[in-house]
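Appendix B. One record, verbatim.
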Amino acid sequence: MPVEVANESETAVDEAALAGICRYVLDAMEVSPLAELSVLCVDTDYMATLHERWMGEKGPTDVLAFPMDDLDTKRPDDPEPGPALLGDVVLCPTVAIRQARAAGHSMDDELLMLATHGVLHLLGYDHMEPDEEKEMFGLQGKLLEGWRSVPREPVTGEPVEPGDR
């Protein structure tokens, strides 16, 4: 499952962990392994520009999700689905730092949560209504718990098998 992470912010981020959590979420949600996802980390000025342009709101936000294709991109005469560009998740590490401090955890943990949140938005989840919010945030929590329950390789973010240690 191709996940590209690009850090265009001035803040160092764990790109391997971001790619890993996104792959984990897509796999757990049974998204086609051919689906492609892009994660972009940006500075507050660029995020504020995107936030105002696409959401009509001033100032930077923590995460935006931009869906691209529907997941089913197969041709009518092809029995197998083709690759699909799921979309882009845009993160703002500077906003994540502020939120992480307020919540009492690390920026890395905040970015993992925000990446999970963004992927769920790309998959059609929302939190505008109370029942939608309960479903989305419940699923988000379960996915993060599942991700954290497996020991991870520090460099690649890939799961470590018990015999590999």
